[in-house]
Design goal:
5-stranded antiparallel sheet; 32 strands; Methylamine Dehydrogenase, Chain H; 357 residues
Amino acid sequence: MKYSTKLSMIVIALTLVISGCGKCKQGYQCNDTCCEEDQICRDGSCCIWYEMESGTEANINGIWGSQANDIFAVGGWCDWFTGSCGGGTVLHYDGNEWSKMDIVAEGAIFDIWGSSGSDVYAVGKNCCFDETTISMLRCWGEIYHYDGQEWSQVDVGEKEPFYAMDGSSDLDIFVVGGRYDDYDEPSTTVLHFDGKEWTEMDSDFAIPLFDVWVDSAQDVFAVGAYYGDHILIHYDGNEWKEMDTEGINAGYPTGVWGSSRSDVFVVKDGPILHYDGKTWEVMTYETRDLRGVWGSSETDVFAVGMNGRIFHYDGIKWCGTIYGDVKESYETVWVAPNREVFIGGSGGTILRLSCPQ
């Protein structure tokens, strides 16, 4: 899921106790070394997270880049009591520092993706709010485009809110969302861009979608939930179909990513799920309240979530730490083409992973 509530900072680092992560009393085992409490084992080395100066207090909901010195982060907030959204923010990292980009976004921005540094899209949500009655009147989705020079809003007509996006090329982009509130029935929204126009796809599942991962134009995965209902769906190039999750607790899925169509990970409010191209299975029972997932390969996957949770999968097991604020929410994780890792969270938090060379 691409949004959170800003909370106060209480700096603390604790190790999550996960079976199979070694016998160290503090931290977890990395080859013959015990990592520090706030470190994570990657490629046989203890790596440390450090916080970058973002220059904003907006919640960081999505991160994407064309390369390690051309990275974009988007943010904003939504108040679930009133339904109002705001703080739409786009940041850019040039390899040295983050800077705020000029964009007119009255609502919140939840996700970002591009085919290159000069062809970038961002999606979000805005609402009309009646301050007199303290009630939400109407919400809709918004799409923005960056051409390498400036941001502009894309006219897609009046659609339900957008929460996530992904693509395989500039001719194949998917945006997902839907209606998620207490004032009307839930809905599913999926848009597709073929390089010329945006079209709404037939996806009548009546559950809002919170994330999407595109392997190719014939293999797209999306996840969503609404209170006690959940959904994992797949697009085969012709139609969207609900995937079979019988026998497992799909919970409240909020993030999806894969290294291939036969190696797909879903994070949620409980155990992480894995799809091998045929069936879904539960990977671990120790994880909970996760929001985002991304990786560089089937043996290098990161998952992040509430209460400072950061997990790493090495192809055999998941291990993790609680880093930073135990009340903080990490909303998104992204791995650059050079395998550098960036995490975004509440209050403008951006973490970067530093590993020994």
